[in-house]
Each structure stands twice: as structure tokens, then as C-alpha cells.
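I would love for you to help me understand the pair of lines that follows before we discuss the fold together.
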Amino acid sequence: MLKLAVPSKGRLMEQCFDWFADHGVRLSRSGSDREYAGRVEGVENLSLQLLSAGEIPRELGAGRIDLGVTGTDLVREKLAGWRSVVTELAPMGFGHADLVLAVPAGWRDCETLDDFAAIARDFRRAHGFRLRIATKYHRLVRAWLSAHEVADYQLVDSQGATEGTVANLTAEAIADITSSGETLRANHLKILGEPPILQSQATLFASRAANADEVAALMRKLGL
């Protein structure tokens, strides 16, 4: 029996249900919105759990679920060496969002990452500490900045609304996920004119601890 987890609420859950229905498998809640088990019709040996999208990478990594739908950003952020832990089975075509670096709109001379690196160097000299970037994505942001040889910064953890940290004077820039950029603009931030740190979407993953034959049989059933 394979254990599948999908996001437990909202638009992502509905889109997951629609995607599986389009592939011949019907998923549904077992009961009320407060219950986190589900029903599966159209395929045998598959059970359904409803979890938060942020929990699913951890459960896949621990082998407590066999299959999970979550964002590529969450898997790559939460699972070190993610390729050795999970297998990416199928991008699902929804839940698109970009992880981006954004700075105050008033930084008129900051349009590229090279501009940002120069500002960060000047900031450290002027203030005696490194420019702060608020983010929930420490692993991904640190690796990206390192690859682009940006060093004069510090990451500060954001547990709430990341886009508000610049206005609250707890950071000078942010790295956050966005689908349209509207919230960033509303908070007087602009995205650097660079390719995003990561382009994410909802994706079906399998734990490498899952039974490979059962996973392959399910993928055939889904027509993938």
C-alpha cells in the first residue's frame, strides 16, 4: 500500500484533486474540513493523507509517506541533498511561483545582482555590519548568492510576512516566493532584473524509500 499526501486545504488541494481526476484517479476528503484523511477511487493499494505543503517534504524524507505533492521550492529548501532522498516524478502544471531577490523600489541604481553586490559592499563599510536579507529560504538563497560570488550579506529568518521586513527596518532586502509580484510592489519593493533564484511549481515526488515497483505501477495507471 502506497501512502500519498497532498496539500490539506485551499486552491492547491483542489488543483491536486483535479489533476489526479484527469489521470483517472479520484481523490476526496473522508469527512469534514478538520479531518486529514481522504478517499481514493480508481486505483488499488493507494491511501491518501492531507498535510500542509510544508510538512510533505519532511514526511517524504523520513519515508513516512511514499508519494507527495508539494512545491519544488519546499523540497529543495527543506531536504539537503534532495536528489538522494526523493525522486521527482511529474511536474503538475499549477502552483507556479518564483523565488526572487527584491530590494526597495527607491534603490534606483540597483537593477542587477552586480549592482546589489556593490551596494552590499558599500553598506558593510558604511555601517560596520552586513546588509540583511530576510527570507524563509536560507539554503536556496545562500547557494545562489555563493554561486554568483556575493558575500557581503547576512540572512535573517522571516517567520511572518517577509515583504514587511524592509518597512519594519529588520532587513534591507528580501528573498521570497512570488507568483505575480503584486505584494512586493504594494510594499514598495522591486525584483532584481535577473533570472529568479528558483522557478517552482507543484510537483509529484516519491520517497526513495518507497517500493519502486508499486510506484512504477501507479505511474502507469496515471498514464505517466
